[in-house]
Specification:
single chain; 7-stranded beta/alpha barrel; 2 domains; nine-stranded mixed beta sheet; nine-stranded antiparallel beta sheet; 20 helices; 31% helix; 28% strand; elongated
Length: 714
Amino acid sequence: MPPAVRFVFVIHDHQPIGNFDGVYEQAWKDAYQPLLDLLQRHPGIRVAIHTSGPLAEWLDAHHPEYLDQLARLADERQIEIVGGAFYEPVLAMLPPRDRVSQIRRYATWLERRLKTRVSGMWLAERVWDPGMAADLARAGVEWTILDDTHFKAAGLADEQLDCHWLTEGDGATLAVFPVSERLRYVIPFGTPEEAIDHLRTLAARRHGALAVFGDDGEKFGVWPDTHRTCFEEGWLERLFTLLEASADWVEMCLPSEIVRQVPPAGTVWLPECSYREMTEWVLPPEAQGACVRARVGAAADPRLAAVAPFIRGGSWRNFRLRYPEANEMYARAMAVSARLEGMRGAGDADPDFLERATTALHRGQCNCAYWHGAFGGIYLPHLRNAVYSQLIEADTLLDRAGGGGERTGIEAVVRDWDFDGRTEIRVSNGPFDAWFAPARGGILYELDLRDQRHNLLATLDRRPEAYHAEVLAGPGVARSIIDASQPAKFKEEGLERFVRHDPSRRKMLVDHFWDVEVDPVAVADGTAMERGDFANGAYEAAVRQSDSRVEVVLARAGNAWGIPFTLGKTVTLAAGGRTIDIAYRIEGLPAGFRQHLAVEFNFAGMPADAPGRVFRDGAARPLGHLGTRLDLVGATTIGLVDDWVDIDARLAVSGTLPTGIWTFPIRTVSQSEGGFESVHQSVVVMPHWIVEGNHAGVWETTLSLAIDRLSTSG
C-alpha cells in the first residue's frame, strides 16, 4: 500500500556570476549552511538540492566543507543532487549546442566533486520551451521540475497535478514534476500547519497523491527577515518536526525515486511558459497591470473561474524587447557562441583555449542580468559588467586559440548583429571593439575595452516600470513583492525624484537639439524638449577601411524646429590606437539658424561617490566624484578616472569650441526582494554648442575620446 502522500521537496540555491563576494558569504552563513545543519538533525527529512554552478565553484573555493557535507548526505540518500546548466542560463535563450554543453559539463563537475550520479536538472526560472525536451534528453537529463502554471496552461485540472508526467520532443521523453504554487507561498510565509493541511487535502482527494515543493533556497535565510523566521524562530524546525510526526501517511521522496518507482500519469505537451509571476513581469507596465487584474478578477468570478488558468502574460524572450540592453548582451553572447562553434568545427584551433573560451561564454550566459522582476537583475550594473567581462574574455581567448595572439589589426564587419533587421557596424582595432547602430541615432552602443575586459557602454536607460506608481505613492502605501501583507521597504528617502524616463538611449554619440536657453536640470532629468529628430533617427552609413584605419561615416538629413539640414559624423579608429576621433559637420543651415546642440557620451561601470573614481579637468585636477553634476562653462576637456577598472579616459573638443560641458549621473529606481532602491547606472558627459552656420551654411567641430589604462598612463 503506497503512502497517502508522497512529498518531493526541492531547493534551488543560486548566486549569479558577478555578485559580490560578501553576498555569497552572507548567503552561505544565513541560509545554505543552517539548512544543511538542520537537515542533519532531521534525518527523516529527505530533499533534493540544486546548487548553481557559480555558487558551487565559490563554495568549493571558500567553504569546501559545505560541499563535503552535501556529498555525505547525498551518499546517505537523504539528499539528491540536482543538476542543471552550469552557469544558470535560461535555456530558452541558448542555441541547442550551448544548452547541451552547459548541462553535460555541470553534471560531470558535480559527479566528480560530490561522488554522486546526477539524473535530473533545475530549469533556471522554470522557463520552458517545448523545443528543449530533446536537448535535455540528449544531455542525459531524465527529469526536471516546472510549475503547476505550465500544466494548467496545457489544460490540466488541479486534480491531475498530484502526480508526475512525461513530455516529449523529437521522439525523446522527459519526466516533469508540477510544483505547487500554493506550497511556494505557504513555505515559509504561511504557517507550518498550513503546509501540512495542504498535504492532508491532497491525501483526502486521492490516496498516493504526489505533492511537489520547489523554490529558492534564499527564501530560507537571505530574503528579508527570513533568517529570523526560519531559524531563530524555528519555522523550518517546526515544519520538519511535523513532517516527521506525519511519517505514517507522508513519505518524503527524492525525485529520481518517483521516476523509477511510480508510473507517470501520461504524456503532456506543455506550452512555452514560466512561473506565473515571470509571465507578468515580462509585460510592459500597462499590460502587466491589465494581466494581473484580469487574472484576479476571473478567479474571483464564478462565471470565469474556469478560464483563469489560461490568463497569463508573455514569453520570457520578450525581456529583450522590454530592455534593449538585454538584447545587446544576448547578441554579444550569440556572436561569441557562433565564432566558437566555427572554430571548433574547423579543427585547427588550440583545444585548451577553446575549453577556456567555452567556460567564459557559459559564464556570460548567466541569466540574472538578462531580466527583471522581483529581483534587481538587469538593473544591477555589476551583473551586466560581469556578463560583458566574460564575453570579452571569451572573444580574446578565441583570438589566441587561432594561434595569432591577441587581436592587433583593424577590422570592420557590417551585419545585423542584434537581430533587428537592420545592420550594425563592428570595428575592432586591438584595444577596442566599437559597435555602431546607424539606424538607431547613429549611436555607439557598445565599446569594449579589451585590456580591462570592460564594456564602457553597459548602460541602462531609465524607463517606466509597473512598480513606479508605488514608489511615487511613497512608504506605507507600497506593498512588499515578497509578502503583500507587509509594506514595501524604501532603502532611502526621496526615491520619487529618481523616477524618470529617457526619450533616447543612454549611449555615446547621441545627438540632441534643444532650445538655446535649455535648462541643464531638464536635460539631466530627461524632460528637455527635443527639437531635432536626430537622437532616435536613422542615419545612412558607409565604412572606409585601409590597413591602418577604419572610418565609419554616418549622415542624416533631418531637421530641428522643422528646419531641414544634414548632420554628418565621421568616426575614426586606427589600428592599435587608443583614441576615437569624431568629426561633426552640419550642412545646409539657413541664415539666422541658432540652436543648441549637445552630443551625449555615457560611461558605465564607473560608480559614483567611490574612492578613486573622479572627474578631472584639462590640467588633471580633480573636479569631484563620478556622480557629480557639473556645468563647466567654456571647458574643452574633461577626464574620467577609475582606478578600480583601470581606466583613464579623456574627452577633448577642438575646432568649434563648445559653450561648455555638462555632466550628470543616471540613476534608476528598481525593486528587489529587499525593497525599492536607487542604482547608479552611468555618468553622462555632454559637450554642447550654440550652432550657427558660416556663410556657406556649414558648422563643424571635432572631438577625441582617448582611453588609456591608468596603470600605464601615469
